[in-house]
Amino acid sequence: MGPTPHGAAHEAEAVGTGAVKEDLFVVLSRRLVYVALVFLPLLRYRAGKALDVSDALFLVAAVFLILSRRPPRRAPPAPAWYFGSFVWVLAGVVASTQAVSKSASLQVVLNAVFVFFVVQWMLRQLLSTTERIQTAMSAFIVGSSVSAFVAFLQTEFHVLGAGTQAGLEGSRAVGLSTQPNIAAVTFAMALVFAIGLVVELGLRRRWYLGVCIAVLAGALIFSASVSGMSSTLVGCFILFITRGFRLRTVLGVVAALVVVYAIAVSVQSSGSNFNLDPLARIEQTTGTNTGYNTVNPRVATIEDSWSGIVQSPIIGHGLDQTTIAVYYDPSLGVYYPAHNILVLYWFAGGIFMVVALALMMGSAFNRLLHGRLRRPKSPDRATRDTVLAGCVTVVFFALQSPELVDRWLWLPFLLALCFRPAVSSRDAATPRATALAKPPAGPVLSPQPEPIAARARRVSGVVGAPAPPGHEGPPGSDHPSAS
Question: How far is CA 120 from CA 34, 59, 93, 149, 407, in A?
Protein backbone atom coordinates (compact mmCIF):
# COMPACT_ATOMS: atom_id res chain seq x y z
CA MET A 1 0.00 0.00 0.00
CA GLY A 2 1.42 3.40 -0.96
CA PRO A 3 1.65 6.40 1.31
CA THR A 4 -1.45 8.44 2.10
CA PRO A 5 -1.77 11.83 0.38
CA HIS A 6 -1.23 13.60 3.69
CA GLY A 7 1.87 11.57 4.46
CA ALA A 8 3.18 12.07 0.93
CA ALA A 9 2.74 15.80 1.33
CA HIS A 10 4.74 15.79 4.56
CA GLU A 11 7.42 13.64 2.96
CA ALA A 12 7.65 15.91 -0.07
CA GLU A 13 7.87 18.95 2.17
CA ALA A 14 10.59 17.37 4.30
CA VAL A 15 12.58 16.37 1.22
CA GLY A 16 12.10 19.73 -0.43
CA THR A 17 13.07 21.83 2.60
CA GLY A 18 15.94 19.58 3.58
CA ALA A 19 17.55 19.77 0.12
CA VAL A 20 17.97 23.54 0.27
CA LYS A 21 20.67 25.01 2.46
CA GLU A 22 19.25 27.77 4.60
CA ASP A 23 20.56 31.29 4.59
CA LEU A 24 22.77 32.28 7.53
CA PHE A 25 20.38 35.09 8.45
CA VAL A 26 17.52 32.59 8.63
CA VAL A 27 19.49 30.36 10.99
CA LEU A 28 20.41 33.30 13.22
CA SER A 29 16.83 34.56 13.21
CA ARG A 30 15.47 31.18 14.28
CA ARG A 31 18.00 30.86 17.10
CA LEU A 32 17.07 34.31 18.36
CA VAL A 33 13.39 33.35 18.33
CA TYR A 34 14.13 30.34 20.52
CA VAL A 35 16.04 32.53 22.97
CA ALA A 36 13.23 35.10 22.92
CA LEU A 37 10.73 32.38 23.86
CA VAL A 38 12.93 31.46 26.82
CA PHE A 39 12.77 35.08 28.02
CA LEU A 40 9.07 35.57 27.21
CA PRO A 41 7.83 34.56 30.72
CA LEU A 42 10.74 36.38 32.40
CA LEU A 43 9.05 39.77 32.45
CA ARG A 44 11.34 41.16 35.13
CA TYR A 45 14.11 41.60 32.55
CA ARG A 46 13.62 44.55 30.23
CA ALA A 47 15.59 46.13 27.39
CA GLY A 48 14.86 49.73 28.33
CA LYS A 49 11.52 51.16 29.39
CA ALA A 50 9.54 50.25 26.28
CA LEU A 51 10.60 46.67 25.47
CA ASP A 52 10.99 43.41 27.30
CA VAL A 53 14.08 41.37 26.49
CA SER A 54 11.93 38.93 24.50
CA ASP A 55 10.48 41.78 22.41
CA ALA A 56 13.96 43.11 21.64
CA LEU A 57 15.11 39.65 20.54
CA PHE A 58 12.00 39.20 18.38
CA LEU A 59 12.72 42.56 16.75
CA VAL A 60 16.33 41.68 15.95
CA ALA A 61 15.22 38.27 14.62
CA ALA A 62 12.72 39.99 12.33
CA VAL A 63 15.47 42.24 10.96
CA PHE A 64 17.68 39.23 10.23
CA LEU A 65 14.80 37.50 8.46
CA ILE A 66 14.18 40.56 6.29
CA LEU A 67 17.87 40.64 5.34
CA SER A 68 17.79 37.01 4.23
CA ARG A 69 18.22 36.43 0.51
CA ARG A 70 16.59 33.00 0.69
CA PRO A 71 13.67 33.27 3.11
CA PRO A 72 12.22 29.92 4.18
CA ARG A 73 8.90 28.65 2.97
CA ARG A 74 6.21 29.77 5.39
CA ALA A 75 2.87 28.32 6.38
CA PRO A 76 -0.09 29.62 4.37
CA PRO A 77 -1.59 32.81 5.82
CA ALA A 78 -4.95 32.82 7.57
CA PRO A 79 -7.10 35.53 5.90
CA ALA A 80 -9.40 35.77 8.92
CA TRP A 81 -6.39 36.49 11.15
CA TYR A 82 -5.20 39.36 8.93
CA PHE A 83 -8.69 40.80 8.59
CA GLY A 84 -9.28 40.54 12.33
CA SER A 85 -5.89 42.14 13.07
CA PHE A 86 -6.69 45.04 10.76
CA VAL A 87 -10.07 45.55 12.45
CA TRP A 88 -8.40 45.35 15.88
CA VAL A 89 -5.85 48.03 15.01
CA LEU A 90 -8.46 50.29 13.41
CA ALA A 91 -10.77 49.94 16.41
CA GLY A 92 -7.87 50.67 18.75
CA VAL A 93 -6.91 53.83 16.89
CA VAL A 94 -10.50 55.10 16.95
CA ALA A 95 -10.92 54.24 20.65
CA SER A 96 -7.67 56.04 21.48
CA THR A 97 -9.32 59.34 20.60
CA GLN A 98 -11.49 58.89 23.72
CA ALA A 99 -8.71 57.74 26.06
CA VAL A 100 -7.47 59.66 29.10
CA SER A 101 -3.90 59.18 27.84
CA LYS A 102 -4.01 59.06 24.06
CA SER A 103 -0.28 58.35 23.71
CA ALA A 104 -0.44 55.40 26.10
CA SER A 105 -3.46 54.02 24.27
CA LEU A 106 -1.70 54.29 20.91
CA GLN A 107 1.31 52.53 22.40
CA VAL A 108 -0.94 49.53 23.11
CA VAL A 109 -2.03 49.65 19.46
CA LEU A 110 1.62 49.59 18.36
CA ASN A 111 2.19 46.57 20.60
CA ALA A 112 -0.71 44.87 18.85
CA VAL A 113 0.79 45.63 15.43
CA PHE A 114 4.08 44.11 16.55
CA VAL A 115 2.46 40.91 17.87
CA PHE A 116 -0.33 40.39 15.33
CA PHE A 117 1.69 41.19 12.21
CA VAL A 118 5.45 41.12 12.78
CA VAL A 119 5.81 38.23 15.23
CA GLN A 120 3.08 36.24 13.49
CA TRP A 121 4.71 36.67 10.06
CA MET A 122 8.11 35.73 11.46
CA LEU A 123 6.99 32.61 13.33
CA ARG A 124 5.10 31.27 10.31
CA GLN A 125 8.37 31.27 8.36
CA LEU A 126 10.83 30.13 11.02
CA LEU A 127 8.71 27.42 12.66
CA SER A 128 7.90 25.62 9.43
CA THR A 129 8.05 22.03 10.71
CA THR A 130 6.54 20.13 13.61
CA GLU A 131 9.97 19.64 15.18
CA ARG A 132 10.62 23.37 15.19
CA ILE A 133 7.25 24.07 16.79
CA GLN A 134 8.10 21.51 19.47
CA THR A 135 11.47 23.21 20.02
CA ALA A 136 9.72 26.58 20.40
CA MET A 137 7.37 25.08 22.99
CA SER A 138 10.32 23.53 24.81
CA ALA A 139 12.06 26.92 24.90
CA PHE A 140 9.02 28.49 26.54
CA ILE A 141 8.87 25.58 29.02
CA VAL A 142 12.53 26.08 29.97
CA GLY A 143 12.03 29.82 30.57
CA SER A 144 8.92 29.22 32.65
CA SER A 145 10.74 26.53 34.65
CA VAL A 146 13.56 28.94 35.48
CA SER A 147 10.94 31.40 36.77
CA ALA A 148 9.24 28.55 38.65
CA PHE A 149 12.49 27.56 40.38
CA VAL A 150 12.97 31.17 41.48
CA ALA A 151 9.41 31.02 42.86
CA PHE A 152 10.47 28.05 45.01
CA LEU A 153 13.46 30.03 46.32
CA GLN A 154 11.23 33.01 47.06
CA THR A 155 8.80 30.88 49.04
CA GLU A 156 11.30 28.79 50.98
CA PHE A 157 14.26 31.15 51.47
CA HIS A 158 12.71 34.61 50.87
CA VAL A 159 15.37 35.64 48.34
CA LEU A 160 15.53 36.82 44.71
CA GLY A 161 12.70 39.29 44.83
CA ALA A 162 10.52 37.65 47.46
CA GLY A 163 7.41 39.66 48.26
CA THR A 164 7.77 42.27 50.97
CA GLN A 165 4.12 43.32 51.07
CA ALA A 166 2.40 42.47 54.33
CA GLY A 167 -0.36 39.89 54.25
CA LEU A 168 -1.18 37.12 51.84
CA GLU A 169 -0.27 39.03 48.66
CA GLY A 170 3.28 39.47 49.89
CA SER A 171 3.63 35.73 50.45
CA ARG A 172 2.66 34.70 46.92
CA ALA A 173 5.57 33.80 44.69
CA VAL A 174 6.01 35.69 41.42
CA GLY A 175 9.16 34.01 40.12
CA LEU A 176 10.80 36.19 37.49
CA SER A 177 7.46 37.66 36.42
CA THR A 178 5.92 40.87 37.71
CA GLN A 179 2.70 39.64 39.31
CA PRO A 180 1.55 36.34 40.88
CA ASN A 181 -1.34 35.74 38.49
CA ILE A 182 0.79 36.41 35.40
CA ALA A 183 3.41 34.02 36.75
CA ALA A 184 0.66 31.45 37.36
CA VAL A 185 -0.69 31.50 33.81
CA THR A 186 2.79 31.09 32.33
CA PHE A 187 3.34 28.14 34.69
CA ALA A 188 -0.04 26.72 33.67
CA MET A 189 0.55 26.94 29.91
CA ALA A 190 4.11 25.61 30.21
CA LEU A 191 2.84 22.72 32.34
CA VAL A 192 0.23 21.76 29.74
CA PHE A 193 2.84 22.00 26.96
CA ALA A 194 5.30 19.87 28.94
CA ILE A 195 2.76 17.13 29.67
CA GLY A 196 1.75 16.97 26.02
CA LEU A 197 5.35 16.77 24.78
CA VAL A 198 6.36 14.16 27.37
CA VAL A 199 3.53 11.85 26.38
CA GLU A 200 4.24 12.40 22.67
CA LEU A 201 8.05 12.16 22.68
CA GLY A 202 8.62 9.96 25.72
CA LEU A 203 10.19 10.71 29.08
CA ARG A 204 13.42 8.90 28.22
CA ARG A 205 13.98 11.06 25.15
CA ARG A 206 13.04 14.34 26.87
CA TRP A 207 13.86 13.57 30.50
CA TYR A 208 14.33 17.23 31.39
CA LEU A 209 10.63 17.84 30.72
CA GLY A 210 9.81 15.60 33.67
CA VAL A 211 11.90 17.86 35.91
CA CYS A 212 10.16 20.91 34.44
CA ILE A 213 6.73 19.42 35.16
CA ALA A 214 7.59 18.90 38.83
CA VAL A 215 9.03 22.41 39.22
CA LEU A 216 6.14 24.08 37.36
CA ALA A 217 3.44 22.26 39.31
CA GLY A 218 5.06 23.23 42.62
CA ALA A 219 5.48 26.87 41.59
CA LEU A 220 1.83 27.01 40.52
CA ILE A 221 0.89 26.23 44.12
CA PHE A 222 3.37 28.81 45.45
CA SER A 223 1.73 31.49 43.30
CA ALA A 224 -1.58 30.79 45.10
CA SER A 225 -3.55 31.62 41.97
CA VAL A 226 -6.89 29.84 41.82
CA SER A 227 -7.35 31.07 38.24
CA GLY A 228 -4.00 29.60 37.24
CA MET A 229 -4.67 26.24 38.87
CA SER A 230 -8.17 25.96 37.40
CA SER A 231 -6.83 26.87 33.95
CA THR A 232 -4.25 24.10 34.25
CA LEU A 233 -6.96 21.55 35.05
CA VAL A 234 -9.04 22.70 32.07
CA GLY A 235 -6.03 22.53 29.75
CA CYS A 236 -5.09 19.04 30.94
CA PHE A 237 -8.69 17.91 30.49
CA ILE A 238 -8.71 19.13 26.88
CA LEU A 239 -5.35 17.47 26.31
CA PHE A 240 -6.58 14.11 27.64
CA ILE A 241 -9.79 14.28 25.59
CA THR A 242 -8.18 15.25 22.28
CA ARG A 243 -5.19 12.96 22.58
CA GLY A 244 -7.13 9.93 23.78
CA PHE A 245 -4.56 8.95 26.41
CA ARG A 246 -4.59 5.49 27.84
CA LEU A 247 -5.98 5.19 31.36
CA ARG A 248 -2.54 4.16 32.60
CA THR A 249 -1.01 7.35 31.23
CA VAL A 250 -3.70 9.55 32.78
CA LEU A 251 -3.33 7.85 36.16
CA GLY A 252 0.45 8.24 35.97
CA VAL A 253 0.18 11.99 35.28
CA VAL A 254 -2.38 12.44 38.07
CA ALA A 255 -0.24 10.47 40.53
CA ALA A 256 2.83 12.56 39.69
CA LEU A 257 0.89 15.79 40.21
CA VAL A 258 -0.47 14.55 43.54
CA VAL A 259 3.06 13.80 44.75
CA VAL A 260 4.21 17.26 43.67
CA TYR A 261 1.17 18.77 45.41
CA ALA A 262 2.01 17.07 48.70
CA ILE A 263 5.66 18.12 48.55
CA ALA A 264 4.84 21.71 47.53
CA VAL A 265 2.29 22.15 50.32
CA SER A 266 4.83 20.85 52.82
CA VAL A 267 7.49 23.24 51.50
CA GLN A 268 5.27 26.31 51.51
CA SER A 269 3.92 25.62 54.99
CA SER A 270 7.46 25.83 56.37
CA GLY A 271 8.54 28.78 54.24
CA SER A 272 5.47 31.01 54.27
CA ASN A 273 3.53 32.56 57.13
CA PHE A 274 0.27 32.15 55.19
CA ASN A 275 -1.50 29.05 53.99
CA LEU A 276 -1.09 28.79 50.22
CA ASP A 277 -2.72 25.37 50.00
CA PRO A 278 -5.05 25.31 46.94
CA LEU A 279 -8.06 24.20 48.99
CA ALA A 280 -7.47 26.97 51.49
CA ARG A 281 -7.05 29.46 48.64
CA ILE A 282 -10.41 28.44 47.20
CA GLU A 283 -12.02 29.21 50.55
CA GLN A 284 -10.25 32.57 50.70
CA THR A 285 -11.15 33.40 47.10
CA THR A 286 -14.84 32.60 47.45
CA GLY A 287 -15.11 34.22 50.90
CA THR A 288 -15.88 31.02 52.81
CA ASN A 289 -15.00 31.64 56.47
CA THR A 290 -13.10 34.81 55.55
CA GLY A 291 -13.83 38.50 55.70
CA TYR A 292 -12.49 39.27 52.22
CA ASN A 293 -12.65 37.44 48.90
CA THR A 294 -11.62 38.08 45.31
CA VAL A 295 -14.84 36.99 43.64
CA ASN A 296 -16.84 40.07 44.61
CA PRO A 297 -14.23 42.58 43.36
CA ARG A 298 -13.99 40.69 40.05
CA VAL A 299 -17.74 40.86 39.61
CA ALA A 300 -17.64 44.55 40.50
CA THR A 301 -15.06 45.24 37.78
CA ILE A 302 -17.36 43.65 35.21
CA GLU A 303 -20.38 45.60 36.43
CA ASP A 304 -18.58 48.94 36.36
CA SER A 305 -17.17 48.19 32.90
CA TRP A 306 -20.61 47.28 31.64
CA SER A 307 -21.85 50.73 32.64
CA GLY A 308 -19.16 52.18 30.39
CA ILE A 309 -20.11 49.80 27.58
CA VAL A 310 -23.68 51.05 27.70
CA GLN A 311 -22.42 54.62 27.33
CA SER A 312 -20.18 53.86 24.31
CA PRO A 313 -20.77 50.38 22.85
CA ILE A 314 -19.38 51.09 19.37
CA ILE A 315 -16.22 53.16 19.82
CA GLY A 316 -15.10 52.24 23.33
CA HIS A 317 -13.15 54.38 25.78
CA GLY A 318 -9.44 53.74 25.08
CA LEU A 319 -6.75 51.17 25.83
CA ASP A 320 -4.51 52.93 28.36
CA GLN A 321 -4.34 51.67 31.92
CA THR A 322 -5.84 54.83 33.40
CA THR A 323 -8.95 54.50 31.24
CA ILE A 324 -9.62 50.78 31.65
CA ALA A 325 -9.10 50.77 35.46
CA VAL A 326 -12.72 51.34 36.47
CA TYR A 327 -13.12 49.74 39.89
CA TYR A 328 -11.50 50.96 43.12
CA ASP A 329 -10.85 48.32 45.75
CA PRO A 330 -10.92 50.07 49.15
CA SER A 331 -9.45 47.03 50.92
CA LEU A 332 -6.18 47.20 48.95
CA GLY A 333 -6.35 50.78 47.72
CA VAL A 334 -5.88 49.97 44.01
CA TYR A 335 -7.87 50.35 40.78
CA TYR A 336 -8.72 47.30 38.64
CA PRO A 337 -9.86 46.89 35.01
CA ALA A 338 -12.51 44.37 34.00
CA HIS A 339 -11.40 40.83 34.83
CA ASN A 340 -12.86 39.33 31.67
CA ILE A 341 -11.30 39.62 28.24
CA LEU A 342 -14.62 39.99 26.39
CA VAL A 343 -15.91 42.75 28.66
CA LEU A 344 -12.51 44.46 28.72
CA TYR A 345 -12.21 44.46 24.92
CA TRP A 346 -15.74 45.78 24.53
CA PHE A 347 -15.19 48.54 27.10
CA ALA A 348 -11.77 49.55 25.76
CA GLY A 349 -12.13 49.17 22.00
CA GLY A 350 -15.82 48.86 21.28
CA ILE A 351 -17.80 46.05 19.70
CA PHE A 352 -15.54 45.87 16.64
CA MET A 353 -12.60 44.91 18.80
CA VAL A 354 -14.62 42.00 20.19
CA VAL A 355 -15.41 40.92 16.63
CA ALA A 356 -11.70 41.14 15.77
CA LEU A 357 -10.86 39.00 18.80
CA ALA A 358 -13.34 36.34 17.67
CA LEU A 359 -11.97 36.34 14.11
CA MET A 360 -8.34 36.01 15.16
CA MET A 361 -8.80 33.33 17.78
CA GLY A 362 -11.31 31.54 15.55
CA SER A 363 -8.82 31.40 12.68
CA ALA A 364 -6.23 29.80 14.97
CA PHE A 365 -8.71 27.21 16.25
CA ASN A 366 -9.78 26.51 12.67
CA ARG A 367 -6.15 25.87 11.66
CA LEU A 368 -5.79 23.37 14.51
CA LEU A 369 -9.11 21.60 13.96
CA HIS A 370 -9.34 21.72 10.16
CA GLY A 371 -10.09 18.30 8.69
CA ARG A 372 -9.74 16.65 12.08
CA LEU A 373 -12.72 14.29 11.70
CA ARG A 374 -12.11 13.35 8.06
CA ARG A 375 -8.38 12.87 7.82
CA PRO A 376 -6.37 9.97 9.18
CA LYS A 377 -4.06 10.61 12.10
CA SER A 378 -1.22 12.73 10.80
CA PRO A 379 2.33 12.96 12.17
CA ASP A 380 1.66 16.41 13.66
CA ARG A 381 -1.70 15.49 15.23
CA ALA A 382 -0.28 15.15 18.75
CA THR A 383 1.51 18.49 18.58
CA ARG A 384 -1.63 20.19 17.25
CA ASP A 385 -3.60 18.81 20.21
CA THR A 386 -0.99 20.12 22.66
CA VAL A 387 -1.14 23.61 21.14
CA LEU A 388 -4.95 23.41 21.20
CA ALA A 389 -4.85 22.62 24.92
CA GLY A 390 -2.55 25.62 25.42
CA CYS A 391 -5.02 27.88 23.60
CA VAL A 392 -7.89 26.71 25.80
CA THR A 393 -5.74 27.21 28.91
CA VAL A 394 -5.01 30.88 28.22
CA VAL A 395 -8.56 31.63 27.06
CA PHE A 396 -10.01 30.17 30.26
CA PHE A 397 -7.57 32.24 32.30
CA ALA A 398 -8.29 35.41 30.29
CA LEU A 399 -12.00 35.07 31.09
CA GLN A 400 -11.00 35.75 34.71
CA SER A 401 -8.28 38.38 34.26
CA PRO A 402 -7.57 41.67 32.43
CA GLU A 403 -5.48 40.98 29.30
CA LEU A 404 -5.02 42.91 26.05
CA VAL A 405 -1.96 42.03 23.96
CA ASP A 406 0.11 40.06 26.47
CA ARG A 407 2.64 37.88 24.66
CA TRP A 408 1.83 34.75 26.65
CA LEU A 409 -1.87 35.17 25.79
CA TRP A 410 -1.26 35.13 22.02
CA LEU A 411 1.67 32.69 21.92
CA PRO A 412 -0.35 29.46 21.47
CA PHE A 413 -2.48 31.10 18.78
CA LEU A 414 0.64 32.21 16.91
CA LEU A 415 2.00 28.67 17.14
CA ALA A 416 -1.30 27.39 15.74
CA LEU A 417 -0.83 29.47 12.60
CA CYS A 418 2.56 27.80 12.01
CA PHE A 419 0.86 24.51 11.11
CA ARG A 420 -0.12 23.86 7.53
CA PRO A 421 -3.81 23.28 6.85
CA ALA A 422 -4.52 19.58 7.18
CA VAL A 423 -5.43 17.76 3.96
CA SER A 424 -7.94 14.95 4.34
CA SER A 425 -7.89 11.92 2.06
CA ARG A 426 -11.17 13.09 0.51
CA ASP A 427 -9.79 16.51 -0.45
CA ALA A 428 -6.25 15.45 -1.33
CA ALA A 429 -6.85 15.60 -5.10
CA THR A 430 -8.30 19.11 -5.18
CA PRO A 431 -6.17 21.89 -6.74
CA ARG A 432 -5.98 23.83 -3.47
CA ALA A 433 -4.82 20.78 -1.50
CA THR A 434 -2.27 19.99 -4.20
CA ALA A 435 -0.93 23.55 -4.01
CA LEU A 436 -0.66 23.40 -0.20
CA ALA A 437 1.21 20.10 -0.35
CA LYS A 438 3.49 21.16 -3.20
CA PRO A 439 7.15 21.13 -2.19
CA PRO A 440 9.46 24.08 -2.85
CA ALA A 441 10.54 24.52 -6.42
CA GLY A 442 13.67 22.59 -7.38
CA PRO A 443 15.69 22.09 -10.51
CA VAL A 444 13.63 21.35 -13.62
CA LEU A 445 14.46 17.94 -15.13
CA SER A 446 14.44 17.48 -18.91
CA PRO A 447 11.94 14.90 -20.19
CA GLN A 448 13.32 11.38 -20.76
CA PRO A 449 13.35 10.16 -24.39
CA GLU A 450 10.79 7.53 -25.30
CA PRO A 451 12.26 4.08 -26.02
CA ILE A 452 12.34 3.16 -29.71
CA ALA A 453 10.50 -0.13 -29.19
CA ALA A 454 7.76 1.52 -27.14
CA ARG A 455 7.34 4.27 -29.73
CA ALA A 456 7.08 1.69 -32.50
CA ARG A 457 4.35 -0.18 -30.63
CA ARG A 458 2.47 3.06 -29.99
CA VAL A 459 2.63 4.09 -33.67
CA SER A 460 1.53 0.69 -34.89
CA GLY A 461 -1.58 0.94 -32.70
CA VAL A 462 -1.48 -2.76 -31.88
CA VAL A 463 -0.86 -3.72 -28.27
CA GLY A 464 1.99 -6.16 -28.06
CA ALA A 465 2.91 -5.82 -31.78
CA PRO A 466 6.52 -6.65 -32.57
CA ALA A 467 8.88 -3.80 -33.24
CA PRO A 468 10.28 -3.25 -36.73
CA PRO A 469 13.33 -5.30 -37.66
CA GLY A 470 16.54 -3.92 -36.24
CA HIS A 471 14.79 -2.03 -33.42
CA GLU A 472 14.15 -4.80 -30.97
CA GLY A 473 17.00 -3.69 -28.74
CA PRO A 474 18.60 -5.75 -26.00
CA PRO A 475 16.64 -7.21 -23.09
CA GLY A 476 15.29 -4.49 -20.83
CA SER A 477 15.02 -2.00 -23.68
CA ASP A 478 11.84 -0.55 -22.16
CA HIS A 479 14.06 1.45 -19.75
CA PRO A 480 15.01 4.87 -21.12
CA SER A 481 18.71 4.28 -20.53
CA ALA A 482 18.67 1.20 -22.79
CA SER A 483 17.49 2.97 -25.92
Answer: 14, 12, 21, 30, 11
